[in-house]
Amino acid sequence: MPPADPPDTKWKGSREAWLDAAFALLLESGVDSVRILPLAKRLNVSRTSFYWFFKDREALLDALIERWREKNTQGLVRQTEAYADSIVEAILNVFDCWLDPELFDAQLEFAIRSWALQSDKVAREIDAADETRLEALTRMFVRHDFETLAANVRGRTIYLTQIGYISMKTREALEVRMRRIPAYVEIFTGQAPQRHELQRFHARHGYVPGTDGRKSDGIPRES
Prior knowledge:
Layout lengths: L14 H15 L6 H8 L13 H25 L5 H13 L6 H11 L3 H24 L4 H21 L3 E2 H16 L5 H10 L10 E2 L7
Antiparallel strand pairs: 1-2
Helix pairs in contact: 1-2, 3-4, 3-6, 4-8, 4-9, 5-6, 6-7
């Protein structure tokens, strides 16, 4: 377990504050920018206070990987395991990840994958995450009576498509994305979503058909 924050954190910051600042720099400028002095300046704390929370920079980077693993990999796995009456509802549960950065952060995913190009260690973490996520998607299809090979291919199609779009850093309006959802569902599952299934999905994301909606990273999309 990480050490508890010291009693007086006013001049030291906190472990979570250091991690938040590190993530911000990672997203802005890449892993080479994630260094103790710039982080201390950003937090307006003493450089030496870093060592209350982390042994060294490598320990901080390890903590960043762990947070990504919990947020994105476990977030996706949990959605594949969420209750669903049908494979369509199960897929819509997974699609929640692409619409809700609290479940799966696309910007963070891009940053970690960019980091992996410079680090064999991080590349191995990516490989492990990909395997875990693909296995979870395969199990989801198997639970809904798909044969194992077909389940794996469908899971790979969903996952590799989405990772490709994240890598392209493309964006689309929420209205455009929602109009495409039924076609994506049918392509990925072989079944068209029912009206009530789409209505529940729309409601979860505060979407009213016919509105412009917001913009954010999410379901496979075009620029």
